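User: Fold both of these, please.

Assistant: Here is the first one.
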Amino acid sequence: MSSISSSGIPSSIDNTVSSTNDVAIRIPIGNAVQSSGSGSSSTVDIKQQSQQPRFHRGPKKLASFLFSQSNTTNLTAADKLRIRGVLKKRAAQLPGNSIHALMTGNGSPYQNIQARIMYATMKMVQSMPGGSAIRAFTRIMHRSTDDDLVEEFPTFRAYPLEPACDAWCEFPVKDRANAVVQWLMAAEQHPEMMQGAWLLLLESDYVWMKPLAV
């Protein structure tokens, strides 16, 4: 099978893609684009974004291809419509049966073991008939620093609402929704990040059995 740029940024970040299987979300995103800033215990706000862009590329070839410096979303209705419009336009440019798998996680050792198992089974499934519909894979990691897997998985690092979860917390997936919103915001600025007409949202404890058809 052909190697595809998993990050969607073909210049410096390139990796062999994997495969996926569960419930796909068809663009338009609709209510998936929402602000999750309420209840934030640690809000990092970036001012004068024209001088200091919010989303940055990682420093290494296979490191996080993009990371966020703020956990603030505060999306208005107009923001949601604009993001939705950009992603709909991008989806229309891609094959109608193509899927971009997005896996969330916080980079903890426990979730990283799960992620490695899921990623390996995705690769197996992609080699099956119909598995080529999975065009790209991105891990959305809600963590304040890179972890050991940034050179193994195509990764977007979202800035967490709860940085304490980098070490330990009772509910390590609490930043999941906010992290997905940050990825959608980044995809508006960098539409090439989106490599499938369908977005498939996964968690690290999934195991793949067969390809997903859309």
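And the second sequence with its predicted structure:
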Amino acid sequence: MLLHCYYGLSLILAVLTSFTLTVSIFSTHWEGSSLNLEYLKENLPADLILTEYASGKLVLLLPENSSQVDPTDWPYNPAILAETHSGLWSTCLALTDDEFGDLRSNLSWIGRKCISNENRKYPAKDKFSITRWRRVMNLSISCCITSLIIISAALLLGIVGVLYKQAACILVDSVLFQLAVFFSVFGMAIHFTNRLERRQDLGSPCGHPSLCSAFSYWTGWSQYLGLGGVALCAATAACVYGLSRVIITMINTIPDFK
């Protein structure tokens, strides 16, 4: 009975770990920005006209004496202030598909809803300088992907160990889940420590310094889901270890155990 409880619990924890970490790592909701319209209107320079789109999630700022719009994609257009959310690979406008469709009908030059963080052009002091968060972003991504690969290998090894009741395989399986915890925590820690520098670069450009305080930045649900996945992964490692001990005990005490 105890053995079957360990089987069931280990399976449930392993599946939940795989699901939560996969969704977290590949989502675009690690962090985001919100726009305070009240602050924006109160501090709007007298020579600018503000036009709202998508219920105020995106605004267009134009000089009062000019109706000419710079037809540049939103990530590089200082006349646009927009709410965004970003992940490890891309940054997106915080709009639904319907809202973005309506926006495209009004501003056809707005560009794509999501843009790759790797291919995006960032402000730099010179052409050779690269901000610190960009230098370590690939390390964070590599750690997260490595943890998923380790978890995949652990699932396969665990299936073999359970089918053939191999305590050694299941014990190694526990070690693999512990390694996945290490790489996941390391990747998330790298991402977290560079958040202040990264958020302004990944968000909508702010061409008017007096209005930049209208943005507020927040941690997205993906990071919390990832932390939950790490906790589940640690619990899986402990449960699988317990399973290996139970199997070893039964092999030593029950001669016909197979």
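The chain has a mean pLDDT of 88.
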